[in-house]
Q: What sequence folds into this?
């Protein structure tokens, strides 16, 4: 027991008297003397480094992923709570700097597989499985041109999917008799149930084309958490005043809906790509405003490590009533509408992909060897914005970020309306492009499937 | 003890005679005058039906003693302050003189526009019936058949209608709901019951790969049903939020044959005298006899297919017991079927040529109750005639136990974590009820 207690006392940041030696480094076989290393308990920088090394070795040598996560988040200290859905001005740039993310407007050029199966009913000239970039405006798929038999089976029936989407929308907003929404609860009245219906029916309708969806797991209102260190600061007050401490962040996110899959999505660009610059912000995070709290350091993707569906596919976020377009426009913050969507996409997807990477055993000292890709749709019921995220690096702490050229990349669109208005049982101005983009997102899968 | 015997008897007799005069010592067991009756009441005509009217007329309504003696006539109201010998006055309630909306008691029941003299008994989602399914059967004029109906059983037995890797998928769904869905050690029932339901429905929806008509289904949550009917001069209603309804484009074909429907004419509904069949129902005097399916007329998914009830309260007393849950399922399936029938065929009571079939599944996360209800007639006033039919398959366990953390006794693992007693048949029945009507 004494040995066990001594092991735990060698903690970075705690100067406790230990009774045992930590793991000694391997000594050369011809040396008669034990290796000369710094003390493990002294109040010196070398001792602190040695304690940190010991901690890193313990995490590397952890027996299971749960043990690794437990050790990673064992030490609790005040940390900044980052909210993906925030009213802070220009929060997307701040979040990019916290997560070392490059934001690229527009979505990445999709791989060939989905393009061949795309619904261009009128585009009979679509070549067989070549790299056909789809035309921007999707033609209404109501009239299907006679295609060769091989392609006919693979064509999506856009009309059917559009009718499913319209049915879901009309049921929630028109056909089902509902009372008036309660005060400030508009999002739970119609857009929330509509989003749930839409995604579940579309996922069920598309699972014949995407076997990944057949093995997927649909979570309603799951919890996604991630804890990380980025940068350093000097502690301003308290008994630890004057010490240099890493800046800790925690994201606790509750997406409206998410789809988890057992196989990882393919990478979009190679691991070491550089598609832009990460914004550098010279202020402390508390100026955003961000506030510090101390509580449990959680890393969670929506279900525990034992779940076979450990990779993420798509998340769906519903903008709350506080951050609705009308409210922002009323206080002359119209340019912040896109900022809200982008901040939500970047923060939520970073937390999700990083938590997925930690579930596979990577952490900031053991950086990812393959990129982790996930998608997200941020909506307020009418306007949809699509985001793709590729996690290339987890090494964001002050020591590991120095020689790390990799950056995380987030692609995102502006929010566009799915329909204009719902009147008397009819949906006016339905936008097929948005539905097509949603379908493309749901059909995304690894190349071997 | 011969001496003690007559002694006791005399004492009892003496106590009975002199009870009004002498105070009986209340301590000791020997001083009881007459033992309290402990068994059920003797069933005489007076105890079951009450005294005959001539005896009732003779007993005079007794006024309280204080009124008889006129003790409260003289009060200290006029003297403006308390006096020890005089009675406490009762003042008339203070009237503000003007209508203050923040301090007004609201209209009384008798002044409300929908007030009716005749009371109506309402069944809502919080009603727990004492007699359970028997009571629901009497109220809805239904004949019970145990087990699931033959068309559903044929879907069950048909191997073409099974999901591939069905067992693996169901085990994964149970593990996800019961073990993996939370950051804590074990999720609570409020979390795992809806999650299990969602996962099972997700698995069932995957069958739409084989049968494209399954995509023509839509789930509706938080919808309100309203149906009203009369049963032997009792007005009954089913109202309010009930469960999750799955609507479909086409109706379920009738499950029972014509002969079975005609055979229900001879069936006699079970009564449970002396309990009235309206026990536990809420009696209201302010009501409107409404028949509303909860959706507008031009709804593209007009036919109710299956009702799902999730008993997800954390505390056991707040959850419905299986018998009460089955009764609730029957009442609401009947309510949905009746509202739909009245919307299709009008309000006149008649025997339906095309019976309306509504299914219902109730669960508390582990135990499943399956029910198929067929509405044959809307003529429910009399006790004779064609009755409705219900098939109930009750208390199907999906799994016996789900151990989140291994049970350790004296540092030895006695029960490792995992699912115990998994029964794939329950999910097969769930899937069969889902596929019913589309295959």
A:
């Amino acid at each position: 027991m004494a040995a066990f207690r001594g092991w735990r006392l060698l903690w970075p940041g705690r100067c406790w008297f230990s009774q045992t030696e930590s793991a000694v480094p391997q000594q050369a076989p011809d040396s008669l003397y034990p290796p000369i290393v710094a003390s493990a308990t002294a109040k010196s920088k070398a001792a602190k480094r040695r304690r940190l090394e010991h901690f890193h070795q313990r995490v590397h040598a952890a027996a299971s992923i749960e043990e690794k996560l437990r050790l990673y988040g064992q030490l609790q200290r005040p940390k900044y709570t980052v909210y993906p859905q925030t009213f802070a001005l220009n929060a997307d740039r701040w979040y990019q700097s916290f997560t070392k993310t490059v934001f690229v407007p527009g979505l990445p050029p999709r791989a060939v597989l989905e393009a061949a199966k795309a619904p261009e009913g009128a585009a009979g000239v679509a070549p067989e499985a070549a790299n056909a970039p789809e035309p921007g405006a999707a033609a209404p798929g109501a009239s299907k041109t006679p295609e060769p038999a091989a392609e006919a089976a693979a064509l999506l029936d856009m009309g059917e999917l559009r009718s499913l989407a319209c049915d879901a929308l009309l049921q929630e907003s028109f056909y089902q008799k509902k009372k008036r929404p309660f005060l400030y609860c508009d999002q739970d009245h119609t857009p929330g149930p509509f989003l749930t219906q839409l995604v579940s029916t579309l996922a069920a309708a598309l699972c014949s084309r995407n076997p990944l969806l057949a093995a997927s797991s649909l979570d309603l209102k799951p919890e996604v958490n991630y804890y990380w260190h980025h940068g350093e600061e000097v502690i301003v007050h308290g008994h630890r005043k004057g010490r240099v401490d890493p800046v800790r962040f925690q994201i606790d996110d509750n997406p409206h809906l998410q789809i988890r899959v057992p196989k990882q999505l393919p990478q979009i660009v190679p691991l070491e790509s550089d598609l832009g610059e990460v914004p550098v912000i010279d202020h402390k995070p508390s100026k955003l405003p961000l506030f510090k709290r101390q509580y449990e350091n959680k890393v969670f993707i929506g279900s525990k490590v034992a779940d076979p569906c450990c990779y993420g596919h798509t998340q769906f976020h519903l903008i709350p009533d506080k951050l609705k377009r009308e409210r922002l426009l009323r206080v002359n913050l119209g340019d912040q509408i896109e900022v809200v969507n982008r901040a939500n996409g970047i923060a939520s997807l970073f937390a999700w992909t990083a938590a997925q990477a930690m579930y596979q055993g990577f952490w900031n000292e053991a950086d990812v060897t393959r990129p982790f890709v996930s998608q997200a749709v941020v909506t307020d019921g009418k306007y949809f914005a699509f985001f793709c995220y590729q996690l290339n690096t987890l090494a964001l702490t002050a020591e590991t970020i120095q020689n790390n050229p990799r950056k995380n990349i987030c692609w995102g669109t502006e929010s566009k309306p799915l329909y204009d208005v719902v009147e008397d049982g009819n949906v006016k101005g339905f936008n097929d492009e948005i539905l097509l983009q949603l379908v493309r997102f749901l059909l995304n899968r690894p190349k071997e499937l | 003890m011969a001496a003690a015997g007559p002694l006791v008897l005399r004492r009892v007799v003496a106590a009975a005679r002199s009870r009004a005069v002498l105070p009986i010592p209340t301590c000791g067991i020997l001083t009881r005058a007459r033992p309290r009756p402990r068994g059920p009441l003797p069933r005489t005509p007076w105890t079951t039906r009450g005294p005959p009217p001539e005896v009732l007329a003779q007993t005079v309504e007794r006024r309280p003693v204080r009124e008889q003696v006129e003790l409260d006539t003289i009060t200290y109201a006029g003297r403006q302050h308390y006096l020890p010998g005089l009675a406490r006055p009762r003042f008339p309630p203070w009237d503000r003189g003007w209508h203050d909306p923040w301090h007004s008691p609201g209209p009384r029941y008798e002044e409300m526009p929908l007030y009716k003299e005749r009371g109506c008994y309402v069944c809502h989602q919080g009603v727990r019936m004492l007699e359970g399914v028997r009571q629901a059967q009497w109220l809805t004029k239904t004949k019970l058949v145990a087990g699931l109906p033959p068309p559903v059983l044929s879907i069950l037995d048909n191997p073409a209608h099974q999901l591939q890797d069905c067992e693996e998928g169901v085990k994964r769904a149970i593990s996800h709901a019961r073990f993996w869905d939370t950051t804590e050690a074990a999720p609570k029932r409020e979390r795992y019951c809806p999650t299990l339901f969602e996962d099972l429905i997700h698995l069932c929806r995957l069958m739409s790969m084989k049968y494209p008509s399954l995509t023509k289904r839509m789930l509706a949550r938080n919808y309100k049903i309203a149906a009203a009917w009369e049963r032997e001069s009792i007005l009954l209603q089913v109202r309010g939020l009930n469960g999750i309804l799955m609507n479909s484009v086409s109706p379920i074909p009738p499950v029972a044959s014509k002969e079975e429907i005609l055979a229900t004419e001879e069936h006699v509904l079970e009564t449970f005298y002396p309990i009235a069949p309206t026990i536990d129902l809420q009696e209201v005097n302010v009501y409107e006899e409404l028949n509303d399916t909860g959706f507008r007329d031009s709804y593209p998914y007009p036919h109710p297919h299956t009702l799902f009830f999730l008993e997800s309260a954390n505390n056991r007393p707040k959850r419905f017991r299986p018998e009460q849950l089955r009764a609730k399922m029957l009442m609401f399936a009947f309510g949905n079927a009746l509202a739909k029938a009245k919307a299709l065929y009008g309000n006149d009571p008649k025997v339906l040529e095309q019976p309306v079939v509504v299914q219902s599944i109730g669960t508390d996360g582990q135990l499943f109750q399956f029910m198929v209800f067929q509405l044959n007639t809307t003529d429910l006033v009399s006790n004779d005639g064609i009755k409705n039919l219900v098939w109930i398959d009750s208390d199907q366990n999906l799994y016996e136990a789900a151990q989140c953390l291994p049970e350790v006794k004296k540092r030895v693992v006695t029960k490792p974590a995992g699912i115990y007693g998994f029964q794939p048949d329950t999910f097969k029945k769930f899937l069969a009820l889902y596929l019913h009507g589309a295959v």
User: Anything to note?
Assistant: Chain A is about 30% helix and 20% strand. Chain A touches chain B through 36 residues (CB under 8 Å). The longest helix of chain A spans residues 336-359.
